[in-house]
Amino acid sequence: MLSQVCSSGSQPFRQRLLPWVQSTALSRSHRVQPSAIRHVRSWSNIPFITVPLSRTHGKSFAHRSELKHAKRIVVKLGSAVVTRGDECGLALGRLASIVEQVSVLQNQGREMMLVTSGAVAFGKQRLRHEILLSQSVRQALHSGQNQLKEMAIPVLEARACAAAGQSGLMALYEAMFTQYSICAAQILVTNLDFHDEQKRRNLNGTLHELLRMNIVPIVNTNDAVVPPAEPNSDLQGVNVISVKDNDSLAARLAVEMKTDLLIVLSDVEGLFDSPPGSDDAKLIDIFYPGDQQSVTFGTKSRVGMGGMEAKVKAALWALQGGTSVVIANGTHPKVSGHVITDIVEGKKVGTFFSEVKPAGPTVEQQGEMARSGGRMLATLEPEQRAEIIHHLADLLTDQRDEILLANKKDLEEAEGKDQVIRRRLAAPLLKRLSLSTSKLNSLAIGLRQIAASSQDSVGRVLRRTRIAKNLELEQVAVPIGVLLVIFESRPDCLPQVAALAIASGNGLLLKGGKEATHSNRILHLLAQEALSIHGVKEAIQLVNTREEVEDLCRLDKMIDLIIPRGSSQLVRDIQKAAKGIPVMGHSEGICHMYVDSEASVDKVTRLVRDSKCEYPAACNALETLLIHRDLLRTPLFDQIIDMLRVEQVKIHAGPKFASYLTFSPSEVKSLRTEYGDLELCIEVVDSVQEAIDHIHKYGSSHTDVIVTENEKTAEFFLQHVDSACVFWNASTRFSDGYRFGLGAEVGISTSRIHARGPVGLEGLLTTKWLLRGQDHVVSDFSEHGSLKYLHENLPVPQRNTN
User: In this protein, which residues make up the domain named Aspartate/glutamate/uridylate kinase (predicted)?
Assistant: First the structure.
């Protein structure tokens, strides 16, 4: 049996051939209690840390994020999860992966119980094999080999299959759990075991004793003797549920044992509002009691006794008993290897059953509102969109006191002055979080610039072509769709991005940092107030639910573009989490300045000071200064070093620069570093070409500068540096949408597709083709057709540049 397990197709499981020394340490008497700190352990490809677990059972969890506190968990494995597609035999690789996840959670200090199907399928496989072997022997003796192909397998009775399969199924589980030094015990039950008070107490006592000894109970209905199910006889009351399948068994067991969480694994992603596979079917993220009327149930799964309706009824019964429930897919090869651990970590997997309805809409509903609102916004006249933006600009100044009061509350909480919320942010982040009268005035000016540029954006004709007589083609600018903008510690980002979304006719989902909650809330209300003057209030939504960024990045059917605004780590995390949704942004701002041998002494120090010291936390701040070798030990070089010392800039020496010095500053750990502070790397190069090569090797394609009086050298640098922004004798800090005259920006992109550099209004538009004809068909343009292609370029209407 062990050989079957080890060849089951689960790579981490097959590698589990080590001596285990933890067997005695896993008993309850040796386990560190929940209040203690546990060490990180990694016995598989799923790293885990044992966490403090303590919860008084009573009410179910209200939010997914609370599931990580679940101590006692029941995992129900449906027949479709445990069995192969041919329904004869077990899906060994999938089963091994599930055992691995259960073991990880068990070794974190949780109490795991399994309710498993599979005995019938496993028995069917064994009985088929025995019948085939028996038939082949008899027919070989009596009829000859020629009739072997005509053998028929008789219909196998389910109870007989269950009787033949139970022992083998349990032996398989024992072999698998043994690989993790975990003991498992089998319990077979029937409906009578719950309705007979003495048997019920015995069952309860047995399960508690097993859990006390750190043993995983594996529970199944005793299908060898269980009577036929009585339809519609269960779930008639809160305290009554018949055990007619493993769904009802799992629910009954979860409530009896006062478990915190019941995970029901099936062959569908969760609960849909209509049968999965139908055109309009949508996965329900959170299901509340009373929502049954909004769901249309289909047929049951390919195997097993219960369908989704039975699962929902059982889940609601367990929920009423104080147990949280999640229904999820345990068969999909891309998620089955971590579905259980993902659920316990609070990730957005499957359908979560909750008794607490949120006050506002779900993020899915917000996405739909942003989509429909954005489409309405795109149909407005340009003057109407500009009027909305002007009104928002006026509100920023008119409601200045209310905005600053909300921002003050955010700052107090961030600085730890609030006695309830004692959070602390680094000084650069506090500066980003802070709003002021001058900032609001600058925002209002930028918004009015956006309003002016929005007059000729959406619907602008980019190309016109006469395909044939009376057949004309146009390419026009249109909104991208729904944007998700995720930003940290920057409340001033909200009105900027809102104005750009309005000008470009895009729906917008905003996810701000918790540290700016109060500021973001009032700024979003002002944006919606401005949108209301033309009835498109819902086009911009602020996500206030407990949605994690990783979960938002999975909404590929609702979001068309993700724009992160924040740290390089945030951008990298979003780029990694986004599945099927393009991400516009840059993960690093490693900006270079090359000081040429023909640079002006008067210009260099001003440019270096402004690029590095004006706002060192900005993504367009200088991080590496490249100096031509001929400038070493010259007055110009001394002036640069003196200025940096006065500005208290910490210098890191590049390898070549360090080699020229007897006593050098600390040598840089990496030439590819974004400091985001008053720190600077200095390196020496021999030529403009070496400077370009260095930038291409260590830069991030953000912003790079040359300082020189030689126009030919400067043009060579401008043409050969492959970055989003390349400057001559100008500070790196000019790399900004407002300073470029774009009014504002949603971010700076270093990607090479669609938009690059500071992304303003134009970067939030795409195109569509409009073809106007008169009964034209392609066959008319064939070799023997009556029409010919003209493909004439037609004049494009002039843009309104006022």
Answer: 71-329
Please provide residue 90's backbone torsions phi and psi, each rounded to the nearest 5 degrees.
-100, 150
Q: Is 3.40.1160.10 the CATH classification of the domain at 64-135+156-225+242-353?
A: yes
Span 141-188, pLDDT tens digits: 555 555 545 555 566 777 788 788 888 888 889 999 999 999 999 998
User: What pLDDT was estimated at residue 745?
Assistant: 82
Sort 236 into a burial class: Cβ within 10 Å, 0-12 / 13-18 / 19+. exposed
* pLDDT > 50? residue 492: yes
3-class DSSP state for residue 702?
coil
At 153 the pLDDT is 58
Q: What is the mean pLDDT of the chain?
A: 83
Rounded distance between C-alpha atoms, residue 746 and residue 765, angstroms: 13
Helices 308-320, 246-256: crossing angle, 10 deg rounding: 10
Q: Where in the chain is the domain with CATH 3.40.309.10?
A: 592-745
- pLDDT per residue over 199-209, tens digit each? 889 999 999 99
Q: What is the pLDDT of residue 276?
A: 76
| Torsion over CA: 260, 265, 270, 275 (sign) | negative
**Beta strands 461-468 and 471-479, pairing class:** antiparallel
Residues of the chain with CATH 3.40.1160.10: 64-135+156-225+242-353
Cα angle value 633/637/640 (rounded, 5°): 150
List CB contacts of 704: < 8 A, sequence separation 6 or more: 591, 592, 593, 594, 695, 721, 723, 725, 726, 727, 732
Let me know: does 367 contact 509? Beta carbons within 8 Å.
yes
**pTM of the model as a whole:** 0.74
Question: Which residues fall within 8 angstroms of residue 102, CB to CB, at 6 or more apart?
Answer: 75, 112, 114, 216, 340
592-745 folds as Aldehyde Dehydrogenase; Chain A, domain 2 (3.40.309)
567: Cβ contacts below 8 Å, ≥ 6 apart: 488
Taking the C-alpha atoms of residue 639 and residue 616, their distance in angstroms, rounded to an integer, is 20
pLDDT band at 113; cut points 50, 70, 90: very high
Task: Yes or no: say if 350 and 328 are a contact pair by the CB < 8 Å rule.
Answer: yes
Backbone angles phi, psi at 633, to 5 degrees: 60, 35
Q: Is the dihedral of CA 678, 683, 685, 689 positive or negative?
A: negative
Pairing of strands 703-707, 725-728: parallel
Q: What is the share, in percent, of the chain residues with pLDDT greater than 90?
A: 50
Helix (H) or strand (E) holding 217: strand 216-221
> What's the sign of the alpha-carbon dihedral 287, 289, 292, 297?
positive
Closest Cα partner for 97 from 446, 361, 458, 341?
Answer: 341
- The candidate with the shortest Cα–Cα distance to 677, out of 432, 433, 427, 487, is 427
List C-alpha distances in Å: 366 to 291, 346, 478, 543, 555.
19, 21, 22, 8, 12
Distances (CA, A) of 197 to 202, 210, 577: 9, 20, 51
φ/ψ bin of 458: left (φ > 0), alpha (ψ from -120 to 50), beta (otherwise): beta
Q: Which of 503, 462, 453 is nearest to 479 (CA)?
A: 503
Query: Edge-to-edge, what's the strand order for the sheet holding 650-653?
Result: 650-653, 679-685, 622-628, 591-595, 703-707, 725-728
At residue 686, the pLDDT reads 96
Coil, strand, or helix at residue 662?
coil
The CATH homologous superfamily of the domain defined by 363-577: Aldehyde Dehydrogenase; Chain A, domain 1 (3.40.605.10)
Separation of alpha carbons 477 and 517, rounded Å: 35
CA distances from 29 to 25, 32, 33, 102, 212 (A): 8, 8, 9, 20, 9
Nearest alpha carbon to residue 555 among 503, 505, 478, 481: 481
3-state SS string for 598-653: CCCHHHHHHHHHHHHHCCCCCCCCEEEEEEEHHHCCCHHHHHHHHHHHHCCCEEEE
User: CA nearest 587: which of 507, 669, 702, 687?
Assistant: 702
Q: Distance between CA 563 and CA 585 in Å, rounded?
A: 6
